[in-house]
Amino acid sequence: MRVLKQDFSRYMEIEGGDAGDGVPVDESGWKLIHGDVFRLPPNLELFCASMATGTQLMLTTFILLILCLTGVVSTTKRGSIMSAMTVLYYIFSCVGGYHAMYNYKRFQGKNWVKTVILTATMFPSVVFVVFAYVNTVALGHGSTAALPFGTIFIIMALYAFLSLPLTIVGGIVARNTVTADAWNPPTRTTKIPREIPTDVPWYRTRAFQVCVAGFLPFSAIYIELHYIFASVWGHQIYTLFGILFLAFILLTIVVSFVVVALCYFQLASENHRWWWSSFINGGMTGILIYMYSFVYFFHKSEMNGILQSSYYFGYMAVISFAFILMFGSAGWHSSLFFVNYIYARIKLD
User: Fold this and answer.
1) Which candidate, 78, 81, 66, places its Cα nearest to that of 237?
2) Euclidean distance between CA atoms 54 and 277, whole angstroms
3) If pLDDT is split at 50, 70 and 90, which confidence band does 24 have?
4) pLDDT for residue 16
């Protein structure tokens, strides 16, 4: 905040012509890219679908934790939590469809059908692929962990007749209610993109930012993550949902602040491609969670064999992908608010 206030003061001095003794002032930093900072990202359909799916998953997780805290969902029965999560995700499909189409329509996108389809299939398709592999391995080993055909049919039917239609309905509602002037950025976008500087310090490179974006939030949940792993994969009953709820809120806040800070440093380096960068920075927490799963499997668990390995790494990939989408979406929304805030408070020619 102190650095940002200094930037505002410096830009106001430049605008007022108060450079002092006629010495020209070097106007550099994030103000120079005001004509490019709101330039839409490539692969807009995929971008909007990713943000919407992340928002849908975030809402599903938040409501699920509240239901577990209030006792509506039994925490002593493992199947009850998974069933509640599946039903909540299907119900909130309308939110995902609306969110995707809301952003896509105000960004003046044209291929709305592709956006809705991507939103409806992005996360379920990954779950289906992993589940098909894991269940096949379980059937091959004659394990009772394999789901019966009746349960699989019910899950697929709920997706086909509940989740998919709700996503389409949400998208259609947004398409018919959202107008093009809903997107009103504080600065105009130029026709020719500004060249991005390449000679930046090492601590402002993308590789360094990605490492920081994942490490700082992950360090805030490392201890709690160990207990969650021990409960889920150690056949124990996890009962500290109050602490888990606070940890989830804290993690979301930390991710948002870290991504906003990294977004500022990126803009200060005159790099206007912050849209996908903010999403990736937020999603790095999910990647580190998956990396930690390897450490836990080989050093802290007693699991072995193809069956247990398939279940563990398969479903951890699904969970990590969900975290990538959730916190990637949270990071982008926070960055969008921040970018709108700073560019709305400077005067431009």
Assistant:
1) 78
2) 15
3) very low
4) 55
Q: Where are the alpha helices (DSSP H) in the chain?
A: 2-15, 44-70, 78-91, 93-106, 112-140, 149-158, 164-177, 206-233, 241-268, 275-299, 305-343
Q: How far are the Cα atoms of 89, 241, 258, 291, 340 from residue 331, in angstroms, in the given order?
A: 21, 24, 8, 20, 14
Rounded to 5 degrees, φ, ψ at 174 are: -65, -40
Q: How confident is the model at residue 244 (pLDDT cuts 50, 70, 90)?
A: confident
Q: Nearest Cα to 288, choosing from 257, 327, 253?
A: 327
CA-closest candidate to residue 124, choices 311, 318, 290, 286 = 318
Q: What is the DSSP letter of 25?
A: P
d(CA 45, CA 55): 15
How far is the C-alpha of 56 from the C-alpha of 77, rounded, in Å? 24
> Which of 10, 8, 15, 17 has the alpha carbon at shortest distance from 345?
8
Q: Exposed, middle or buried by CB within 10 Å (0-12, 13-18, 19+), for 33?
A: buried
Helix (H, G, I), strand (E, B) or coil at 26: coil
Per-residue burial over 219-232, b if 16 or more Cβ lie within 10 Å, else e, is: ebbeebbebebeee
Q: Is the pTM of this model over 0.85?
A: yes
CB 231 within 8 A of CB 237: yes
Per-residue pLDDT tens digits for 47-106: 999 999 999 999 999 999 999 888 898 877 767 888 899 999 999 999 999 999 999 999
Query: What is the pLDDT, as a whole number, of residue 294?
Result: 93
Q: Exposed, middle or buried, 210 (CB in 10 Å: 0-12/13-18/19+)?
A: middle
Output the DSSP codes for 53-80.
HHHHHHHHHHHHHHHHHHTSS-SSSHHH
Q: Which two tokens stand for residue 147?
A: 């789901």
Best CA proximity match to 8, nearest among 341, 333, 278: 341
Predicted pLDDT of residue 344: 87
